[in-house]
Amino acid sequence: MSQFKNILTLSFRDYSHEWRMSGCFVLALASVLAPMMILFGLKFGIVSSMVNELVENPSNREIKAIGSGSYSEDWLNRFAERKEVAFLIPKTRALAATIQLKSKSAGRIFSTELLATAQGDPLLKTVATTPRGYHSVILSEEIANKLNVKKGDVIDGSLARQFRGKRERVHIDLKVLDIAPSHTVSRKVAFVSLDLLLATESFKDGRAVSQLGWQGQQQSQQQREYPSFRLYARSIYEVKGLVAALDKEGVNVKANLEQINTVQSIDQNLTIIFWIIACVGAVGFSFSLGASLWANVDRKHKELSILRLVGFQGGKIILFPVLQSMYTAILGWLLAVLIYLMAEQSINQILAPNLRIDRVICYLLPEHFFWALGLTLSVAAGAAILGGVRASRIEPSDGLREI
């Protein structure tokens, strides 16, 4: 243990004494590591921003059924249990999924699309509540502005049908639970519970809805079939697999695969480019540092042999160049991080606005810096082994010959 402490002290004093040469090693490492960190920061920042934009827009994770089909509750429940599926809820016919809304503060009646919703709806991720029962609704920002209503207001919803030769209209009071922001829903939409959506379809088809007192024919007890559904993948990377799974089941769908594939292609290509440059830089620096340490051992042949002469073992002597390479790695990493942080600020604050990019295009996470440190220490240690093996083979008698 005492020998290790002595080697640690001696290697540090020697390293600091030859500060000019040590500084050149540090600058050489920083000149290799800093550009790689900037390149990776650009790769990570640009790709992450593009992926986040895709993820934050739920429409990019939506898989839409083309045309009208026939989907049973059993099929929908089975497909919703797939781990790739984030949200799945049935839809009724488009003509049946409309309602006329009116408020006391608006002079017009607006025909509005109805969408069933439930807990976990990606379109309502910023909304804390979920409509339940028959008398609550979440409005999109567009229809809320037209109705001039806010959260907590009560509006009138009405449905019309032609039944048994007569035109009928029913009314229902709906409490506005919240307003969905325009960046998630840009059209006139009223989000309601699935129960209310099915009730509107039943009414328009001439069937009775006893819960609301709407008269009509008695509903059959057979399992309901739905013409379509609203489906969202858990991530953009799950979309392709879900499209393939639906295609196998004979369901014709469409999704935003082209944009997703573009982002994935950019990510893969930038990753390949980064690792090619990183490997070339790491190999080049390893040989450079290894050759320098080898030459340094030859230059300090007498001093190292004297250490062997006074009792230091060969294994401990190996630590002398290895420790000095660790000092270079740590100081070079610190300098590279400082250079990167200055470059990051310049890129994000000066270059991005000039390119009219409204997002951060260069940044790294804290763990990325520690990964860089770990890799730098590993490369430096590997390079130092060359000098360490050379140093361990020095005989104590070599020092006596030169005294």
What does the model show?
The chain has helices at 2-17, 19-56, 73-80, 141-147, 194-204, 239-248, 257-299, 301-309, 314-354, 366-392, 396-402; strands at 62-65, 71-72, 85-91, 98-102, 110-116, 136-140, 154-163, 166-180, 189-192, 225-226, 228-233, 253-254. It is an alpha+beta fold and 403 residues long. The chain folds into 2 domains: 2-55 and 262-402, no CATH class; 67-251, no CATH class. The strands form 3 sheets. A 6-stranded mixed beta barrel has the order 4-5-9-6-8-7. Strand 4 and strand 5 (110-116) form a beta hairpin. Helix 2 (19-56) runs antiparallel to helix 7 (257-299) and helix 8 (301-309) packs across helix 11 (396-402). The longest helix has 43 residues, at 257-299. The protein is elongated. The two termini are 29 Å apart.
Give the secondary structure arrangement, pairings included.
Blueprint: H1 2-17, H2 19-56, E1 62-65, E2 71-72, H3 73-80, E3 85-91, E4 98-102, E5 110-116, E6 136-140, H4 141-147, E7 154-163, E8 166-180, E9 189-192, H5 194-204, E10 225-226, E11 228-233, H6 239-248, E12 253-254, H7 257-299, H8 301-309, H9 314-354, H10 366-392, H11 396-402
Helix pairs in contact: 1-9, 2-7, 2-9, 7-10, 8-11, 9-10
